[in-house]
């Protein structure tokens, strides 16, 4: 396994017997076209979509045994929606590890909701083919824990970071930028406090802190959305 794939696997908390599957899952069509290679993640995305559909159906069937088919379908749809998958991919920082062509990279491909959701499904497909259904199930239960646990509330808006990204992308066809302001150790247990700003068009829209980068970015996005609501 080369260094790029090793770092990706370690970041995701995964191990692969066949690292070619991970390489395929992290290769966007735009890169394949530019590099002249004969694989990308679209077939794995197709396969991962089927695996995800089964696992989501299995979960809601077991967790909501007294509900009718209509409710189960709504719950399943919430779990496998593009927004929920993109949210999980953002939490994994999946976009950082995907290979894109130059044009797609420059235009914000690493943060595009559709690219993130598709790559998440491709990664799931790779996990299934490499390690089987039980490992794929564990991955989904871990990465989609919040949306699975929230039930029908999952149909409501997702995290502030996703909401802000969708608003900025629709309005300006750009993406918010997150900038670390400070990182300080708060105690002897190596716990840190992170402070992040979120910028849109080069202007600071919000600021937030947290004990992880993810939490600080989420709070910065929440601050930006609050200010946006107050200005409307």
Characterize the structure shown:
- By secondary structure, the protein is mainly alpha-helical.
- The protein has 2 domains: 3-155, Ribonuclease III domain (Ribonuclease iii, N-terminal Endonuclease Domain, Chain A, Orthogonal Bundle); 160-231, Double Stranded RNA Binding Domain, CATH 3.30.160.20.
- Helices cover 61% and strands 11% of the residues.
- It is built from 12 helices and 3 strands, in the order αααααααααααβββα.
- Strands 1-2-3 form a 3-stranded antiparallel β-sheet, with helices on one face.
- A hairpin with a 6-residue loop joins strand 1 and strand 2.
- The longest helix has 22 residues, at 42-63.
CATH homologous superfamily of the largest domain? Ribonuclease III domain
Indicate the low-confidence ranges by residue numbers.
Answer: none
First-to-last CA distance: 51 Å
Query: What's the gyration radius in Å?
Result: 19 Å
Provide the domain count. Answer: 2
User: What coarse outline follows from CA principal-axis ratios?
Assistant: globular
| Element-by-element helix/strand order | HHHHHHHHHHHEEEH
How many helices does DSSP assign?
A: 12
Query: What is the residue-averaged pLDDT?
Result: 89
Strand order across the largest sheet: 1-2-3
**Biggest beta sheet attributes:** 3 strands, antiparallel
| Structural class based on helices, strands and sheet pairing | mainly alpha
How helical, in percent, are the residues?
55-70%
Total strands: 3
How much strand?
5-15%
CATH class of the largest domain: Mainly Alpha
CATH fold naming of the largest domain = Ribonuclease iii, N-terminal Endonuclease Domain, Chain A
What's the architecture of the largest domain in CATH terms? Orthogonal Bundle
């Amino acid at each position: 396994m080369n260094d790029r794939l090793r770092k990706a696997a370690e970041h995701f908390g995964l191990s692969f017997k066949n690292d070619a599957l991970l390489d395929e899952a992290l290769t966007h069509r735009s890169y394949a076209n530019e590099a002249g290679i004969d694989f990308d993640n679209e077939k794995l995305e197709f396969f991962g979509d089927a695996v995800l559909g089964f696992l989501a159906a299995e979960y809601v069937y077991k967790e909501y045994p007294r509900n009718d088919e209509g409710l189960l379908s709504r719950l399943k749809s919430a779990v496998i929606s593009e927004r929920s998958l993109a949210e999980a991919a953002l939490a994994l920082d999946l976009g950082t590890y995907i290979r894109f062509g130059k044009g797609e990279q420059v235009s914000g491909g690493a943060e595009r909701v559709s690219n993130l959701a598709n790559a998440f499904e491709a990664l799931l497909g790779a996990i299934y083919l490499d390690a089987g259904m039980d490992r794929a199930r564990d991955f989904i239960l871990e990465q989609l824990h919040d949306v699975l646990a929230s039930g029908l509330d999952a149909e409501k808006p997702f995290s502030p970071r996703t909401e802000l990204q969708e608003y900025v992308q629709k309005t300006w066809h750009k993406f918010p930028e997150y900038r670390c302001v400070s990182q300080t150790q708060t105690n002897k247990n190596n716990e840190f406090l992170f402070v992040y700003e979120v910028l849109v068009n080069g202007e600071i829209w919000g600021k937030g802190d947290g004990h992880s980068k993810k939490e600080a970015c989420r709070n910065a996005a929440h601050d930006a959305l609050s200010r946006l609501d107050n200005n409307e």
